Structure formats: C-alpha cells, structure tokens
Amino acid sequence: MQKSEKNGGEEAAPSSVPAGAEVGWRGMAATLPGVGIALLPKLACPACWPAYAGVLSSLGIGFVNYNPYLLPLTALFLLLAVASLGFRARSRRGFGPLALGVVAAIIVIVGKFVLFHDPTMYGGIILLMVASLWNSWPRRRKGNNSCPACVS
Which end of the chain, C or N, has fewer beta carbons within 10 A? Predict the structure, then answer.
C-alpha cells in the first residue's frame, strides 16, 4: 500500500468495481452456483426430504410423483452393479459373482415390483452385497509358498 500525505495514512488499492455501482441481475446470477453448492448437501440428504415435502405441501405444492420412474431407475442401477461384477471377471474371481449378482438383481426386481414383498427384496440386496464382496476378495497366488532362498 502507498502512503498518502492527504490522509496521513495508507491508501486503499483501486477496486475493479467502481464505488456506488449497482449490482445487476448478472451479478446476482453469478452467485447462484455458489448458493447451489452450499445447498447441495441439504438437498441430497434423504433425511431432509420429509421436511422439504412438508414445506412444499404447506404451500399447496404436492411432492413429485416418482412412482413411474422407480422401476427404470432401479433396473438401471442394478444393471450398473451387475456390469461392474462382470467387468474383468476372468482376472478376478471368475463368473460366479456375476451369476450370483444376476440372480440377486432379479430377486430385487421381483420382490419390489412383482410380489411387493420387502423381505424378498432385502434378501436380494444381501445377495448382491455377497456377490460384490466375493468379487472383491483377493485371490491367492498359485505356486510355491516357500521363500526363494529355500528353493533348491
């Protein structure tokens, strides 16, 4: 900062925004991404959704009906999970986890959307978790378990 003899103190650095300038709609719109990022944890939190539903219902706005989208979204995410089990299956645990994952995905879909039976759906979810753990479990190395110095 530079010394000013007029004020006897330090002079402020010049600002890029002129003093007294009004902030227009563009300046306000520039703050929206920051506000969105600040609200993201609250909007993505499932525990907060009932509060939002209550506020919107009190204003007379009914919450969005998500039932038509539930089956396609569930099928899509189950397909992604099963595809991840099949990705490089030969180099991991083979096709056993993939087969178990396919059976588990079918059980989840049937339990949730055909039978409307929650224990069946949860059983399918548990099977899918077992398939995922089975797929991620490290393989033992084949070969001699002794140290190289002991091999003659």
Answer: C
